[in-house]
Amino acid sequence: MEPLELRAARLMETAAAVYGVQAMAALLRLLPERDPHPHLFTSLSVILDHLHDPRDAGELFVRFEIALLEDLGFGLDLARCAATGTLEDLAFVSPKSGRAVSRTAGLPYADRMFALPPFLSVEGRAADRESLEDALRMTGYFLHRHVYEPRGIDVSAARNGFVQAALKALGPGRSPVDPPTTGDQLRDPPSL
Questions:
Q1: Which helix (H) or strand (E) holds 44?
Q2: 57, 51 Cβ separation under 8 angstroms
Q3: Is pLDDT above 70 for 180?
Q4: Which has the closest alpha carbon to 146: 112, 178, 98?
């Protein structure tokens, strides 16, 4: 018997890769046992091939967290505005509904919502540090709200390690990526 692909040596080369493997394993443990998730398996394989490059790994990791939320029943709807139904100029995500909101509908509530990272809404757009920070803050919030808090478990320390390592590779940033978790820090916009 011979292995088809050897990844271990490459995955031990960077902090982002080491933390990334641990973080994804912790996320996969949240799924129901023996419940098949073939698309997550495929996604995991793609991410493992790119974890050694933190620039690609961060974006793929966010997409993995979004897919995991979907499989757990808490999917985000980032394709259409929750208020107007439009498909264009989506700029925010409502923390209440997990749905995208257009710039014009969401502007009055911008301080209460997450910025929708362009790489999640614009085809072919790559993540930069700022948009990756926004995306990780958003997925962290929804994981905390819908998965970790109700189960009484803490966020994996490996996720925090991965986030810091991936962001460090993208250069200096504006702020830490800890998601707001209380109503005082992030208020829900009305009816979105």
A1: helix 38-50
A2: yes
A3: no
A4: 98
pLDDT at 106 over 80: yes
**Long-range contacts made by residues 174-180, C-beta under 8 angstroms, separation at least 24?**
174/130, 174/133, 175/133, 177/133, 177/136, 177/137, 177/140, 178/137, 178/140, 179/137, 179/138, 179/140, 179/141, 179/144, 180/137, 180/141
- Domain definitions of the chain by residue range: 8-73+126-169
pLDDT at 185 over 50: no
- Split at pLDDT 50, 70, 90, the class of 187 is very low
Instruction: Identify the pLDDT of residue 174.
Output: 59
3-state secondary structure of 3: coil
Q: Token pair of 163, please?
A: 């986030």
Residue 93 structure tokens? 């995500």
More confident residue, 181 or 35: 35
Q: The tokens of 136 are what? A: 């990780």
| H or E stretch covering 87 | none
Give the single-character DSSP code of 110.
G
DSSP lists the bridge partners of residue 92 as 101, 115
Helix axes 54-71, 38-50, angle to 10 degrees: 170
In the chain, % of residues over pLDDT 70:
90
In the three-class reduction of DSSP (H, G, I as helix; E, B as strand; rest coil), residue 170 is classed as coil
Structure tokens at 83: 């208020």
Question: Closest Cα partner for 176 from 158, 160, 156?
Answer: 160
